[in-house]
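Researcher: Let's walk through a ligand-bound prediction step by step. First, I give you the protein sequence. Second, the SMILES string for calcium ion. Third, you return the three-dimensional complex as structure tokens. Ready?
Model: Ready.
Researcher: Here are steps one and two:
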Amino acid sequence: MTFQASQAAEVKIVDAEDQVVGTATIQADGSFSCTVSLALGEHSFTATSGVVRSDKYTVHALPIVPIYEDFETFPRRDFVPNEPVINPHTGTSVGLKSGAATIGDLGDHDGPTTYQYLFFEYGTVEIKPPNSPKRVTFTRWPHDNGAKIRYFDERHTLIGERLLDEEIMIINSDIPIYFLELSKIRELGKNEYIDNFTFE
Ligand SMILES: [Ca+2]
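Model: Step three, the predicted complex:
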């Protein structure tokens, strides 16, 4: 969005209903930028400075692109506490806060999963999606309800938690999920085989 506003220091950005949605400081070359949050669909904006008003600009908000993490491209390793690993192909971060977890493969274990998966023995694992999703799905095995998953916003405030009690887990949140924490709640619970995340 550009606008001749060199006579003023600041512009207001207004939406189609004339509501001010942001202000921006004008740079020496007359340019400015302003970030506004959008619901999906078409939005139009104008910039005003004093009595001067720009042409109308129309933008479309884009949906969040789903990201799949099936661990097939994840670097294979045993996790070490407080040394999170980021998958360079998907941007997903997995870190161990305590306990033991591995990126395992079917050469070692049987299970209804694709070749590599997150093998979680005990403690707490933090999973950080790259796109702050509002919907997270994943698969797990076996059907032993010895673990829970908690999910947090960008201020690290707890949004919600639930038991791992379904083969296909679905988490829906009104607030973007910044990270998730997988924790064992029973020491004698079986190991968890976690796979096939979709972050959207
Ligand atoms: Ca997999």
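Researcher: And what stands out?
Model: The mean pLDDT is 85. The radius of gyration is 23 Å.
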